[in-house]
Write a structure and sequence with these properties.
Blueprint lengths: L9 H23 L20 H21 L17 H9 L1
Helix pairs in contact: 1-2
Length: 100
């Protein structure tokens, strides 16, 4: 290993750019165009929630689920498609994954 090599490979860079574009694009789309999603209308009868409270809660939950899915996808660095392979062999990873 050369000391001056980059720690980020081309495949890793493509993965990071791809997931960032996907997540930002989806979040902006859902932030701006959400009328088609059922049950996101504001309920003015509840004084504890503000305007668009359900909408922002949905956005937060989608973001968190994308990060959990990304946690499993980031385990492989060479473009593999089998993200569940070897998961049961890594006990420490499973503990960290369940804990987060």
């Amino acid at each position: 290993v050369n000391r001056h090599d980059s720690i980020i490979t081309k495949q890793m860079l493509m993965n990071m750019i791809g997931i960032a574009a996907y997540e930002v694009g989806l979040m902006i789309f859902l932030l701006l165009d959400y009328e088609w999603i059922p049950d996101l209308q504001d309920h003015h009868s509840d004084p504890m929630t503000g305007p668009k409270s359900r909408h922002y809660t949905m956005l937060f939950n989608i973001f968190v689920l994308m990060q959990v899915f990304n946690e499993y996808n980031a385990r492989f660095l060479h473009g593999e498609w089998q993200i569940w392979r070897g998961l049961n062999n890594n006990r420490l990873y499973l503990i960290i994954s369940i804990g987060t």
